Amino acid sequence: MKAYWICIYEKINNSEKLKEYAVKAKPAIEKFSGKFLVRGGKNRTNDGIDSPRNVVVEFPDYNTAVECYDSKEYQEAHNILKGHVVRHHQIVEGG
């Protein structure tokens, strides 16, 4: 069963750091067969926090999604975001 990273950004304090993160995160995600389904774009908040950015990445399965997140390559990219964004990141199994 496929799995998804769902990232809901609450606040972006430094868009240059977000760009730096994206350049480094993309190859790490692709290494684990991750496929971007949603990356920014128009959105409307119906309930909850207003979000300036949303990202959804599809993986072949839950274990691969977890392995990618925990990988050295992705964590190096993730560390770029510290102090520059507030986001909610979940790994969800789904059909």
Layout of strands and helices, then pairs:
Elements: E1 3-12, H1 15-31, E2 35-39, E3 53-59, H2 62-70, H3 72-81, E4 85-93
Antiparallel strand pairs: 1-3, 1-4, 2-3
Helix pairs in contact: 1-3
Keywords for this entry:
95 residues, four-stranded antiparallel β-sheet, Alpha-Beta Plaits, globular, alpha+beta, 4 strands
Poorly predicted sequence stretches spanning 5 or more consecutive residues? none
CATH architecture: 2-Layer Sandwich
Q: Give the count of helical stretches.
A: 3
Number of domains: 1
Q: Determine the fraction of residues in helical runs and give it as a percent range.
A: 25-40%
Count the strands?
Answer: 4
Average predicted confidence as pLDDT: 96
Gap between N and C termini: 6 Å
Class based on secondary structure composition and strand pairing: alpha+beta
Which fold does the CATH topology refer to?
Alpha-Beta Plaits
Compute the CA-based radius of gyration: 13 Å
Largest sheet strand order: 2-3-1-4
Mass-distribution shape: globular
CATH class: Alpha Beta
Beta strand %: 25-35%
